[in-house]
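FW: tagging you since you asked about this chain on Friday. Here's the raw sequence from the shared folder, copied in full. Didn't touch anything.
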Amino acid sequence: MTIYLRTGFFLAFLAIFAGTPAFAQTSNDDVYREWVDYRDGEISVDFDQTPVQFALYAIHAKTGFQIVMPAMSEAKAVSFRVSRQALEPAMRSLISRIGYKNFALMYDDTGRPHRAIILGSQPITAEPGAAAAVAKNEPAAQPLSTDERAKLQKELERWNELKQEERGRIEDRLKTLPESEEREQLVKAYGRQVLGLDK
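HL: got it, structure written out here
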């Protein structure tokens, strides 16, 4: 027994004073390499039941691309894999995989996407019966008239002066607009106001 104690103390002494560090120091890039790799404008992602907030942070840390999401009431996990895909289509797919469809992409001066803003809507439900129930209860999306577009544009320009209920009404209308160029312009204006960016 004493021989084991002596050997144990000797090994502990060597490990503490003479050994090399047990953990290699890594740069910030290496921390997320297991999940995200970004080179030459192409991204590779490997998330398997990864918490959404961690996935978004890892992507932001590696690429600089930020996804602004509404607060989620529950912790969600995402499984998503792409290999050497352009950043923009990969992020569109990721946002859809998380369960959102209403979002706006913002680009920097060079035309590179740098931020996605997800409108504060409910995530898409995966239940087959839920989609039919929602379709029955909701009227068809009304197209945007010229007067309504001008009114929404003016309200978005004075976003900071609006009350919360007025903001909610605008957000609800933006969510229900059918796909169109006018809708995209209004969503971009909404995103600039929410983030406080200059036009």
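FW: Residues 143-199 form one domain.
HL: agreed, and Residues 122 and 197 are 25 Å apart (CA to CA).
FW: great, closing this out.
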